[in-house]
Description:
The protein is α/β, with parallel strands linked by helices.
Amino acid sequence: xxxxxSDNDTRxxxxxxxxxxxxxxxxxxxxEVTSLFEMPFNDLLFKAQTIHRQFHDPNHVQVSxxxxxxxxxxxxxxxYCPQSARYDTGLETxxxxxxxxxxxxAKRAKAAGSTRFCMGAAWRNPKDKDxxxxxxxxxxxxxxxxxxxxxxxxxxxxxxxxLKQAGLDYYNHNLDTSPEFYGEIITTRQYQDRLDTLENVxxxxxxxxxGGIVGMGESAQDRAxxxxxxxxxxxxxxxxxxxxxxxxxxxxxxxxxxxxEFEFVRTIAxxxxxxxxxxxRLSAGRESMNEQMQALCFMxxxxxxxxxxxxxxxxxxxxxxxxxLFKKLGINREQTxxxxxxxxxxxxxxxxxxxxxxxxxxxTAQTSNSDLFIDATKTSIKEISAR
Length: 387
Ligand code: SF4
């Protein structure tokens, strides 16, 4: 089901200066964030959905696939993670995968509808001797026309530049939780190390994917402080994964109390309000959520998910279940497009101008790259690029 054009007219015509100022805010105070969390649930969802519609097509969801390219035996002590060598979770470790195997997985992901292929390695940080191999991996996946993302742990400045040079589009490095709660979860690296890695990624010119995990026993204030940290970065992360803890037997958090599901939805909604242009990803923990809960998350402003039955080492809904849910909700997956392909973008702009009869100033003044992409999919991006 396609969103009709009147939805988009509404989206553009209702864009308000208050939301535009929210988009560029990097000075959130903690009490402002907690006030958002404390809003009546319906008011919060309405606010989040209203902002969502001003920056995104409400019926499109971006789909990524995540593959573990090196599994387990990690020296770090993240208390939620079954890949830490410190916890006995029965996980089978796996060495760095062969590039051909990764390419085959990426082809399958693309065929299943993913637009972004994310590769994760259980490392504290990549060693310099690993870099030629992982950069080659990025180059091979890029040839398939997929966006690429990697999560390899802490990254130095020169490693970030090497990945950018290879064509890596996104680098994932989560802040995980608030600075105050962080020491309860990880002791083998500091919060500042994480911020430094994100700085190196930005400095190299890559898109930042950074979010956190909730349901680890943190307080409501910690959840607010996590979002405050993310929104107050020099640029909002382009992707913000919000994970619900998946409790894995053998990890120190395997019997922590469940987080109330409405609190999770609130976290999505507040992230959407504070970082309006970002893609907010409904990430780990989706398998335990029913369809209604996931629909509430989309209503709250989530517009990205991971596809595929595995998320690194924990399970995820089967692809056909997601396809069914999207069908029930009238959600369209975004289609593959290389954001770096400027000539294609120009052709799309020309096409849109012809269709709308509006002048170029409209496009440059009011249409962001992501808006452009979303609208362009309706005129069939494949059709345009094939010409
Ligand atoms: S989250 Fe990453 S760094 Fe932490 S233990 Fe797991 S694989 Fe290692």
